Every structure is written in structure tokens, then in C-alpha cells.
Amino acid sequence: MKVNWDYIQKYWDWLGHIVEGLIMSAIVTVIFVFAVPLKMAALIGIAFSIGHFHGREKRDYELSVDMKPPHLKAHLIWRWSADQITDFWPTAIVLLLGMLIVNGL
After folding, report:
1. Range(s) of the domain holding residue 77
2. Assigned domain for 40 exists
């Protein structure tokens, strides 16, 4: 069976980012659980993952428009492409919901 990676990239890329964000959060949580209580470790893991995705998509935008340093206008996320927005926001929303659940809403 041949996997159609173009189809997956076009229609399911956002889901891969969500899975990656959840796994990254879990890994960082496991690392910090030895230093702080579980709830705090989980919040640290989720915050790290959200920050990682924002930074990665910001950097993707900087490269796509050939932005010269200091890259201050890259934080204007409404200028990001549709691909950059759909990579970041679904992941950020799922991770934020996870953060709210861990924190007890």
C-alpha cells in the first residue's frame, strides 16, 4: 500500500501538529515531574509546547517573507499564511484547553 503523503500534508497536517504538541507536552511533563508537583509539571509541559509552536510558525513566517532581523513584525500573526495559521491555532487551542483542564478550569 502506498501512502499519499501529499494528501496527508494538505488535509491532515493540522492534526499531526496537535499530536506532536501533546506528545511534546507529555515529555516535558515527565522531565519536570521530578522537580515540581505533577499539576505544575503538566502546566510547564503544555506552556512549553505552546511556546514552541508559536516560535516555529513565527520563524516559518520570517523565512517565507525573507524578513531581516530583528523580526519584530513577525509577531503580527494576522499576516501569516493560511498554512502557518492552521499549523499554529488548532494546536494552541487544544493545548490551551488541556491547560485549563489541568488547572481545574
Report:
1. 26-102
2. yes
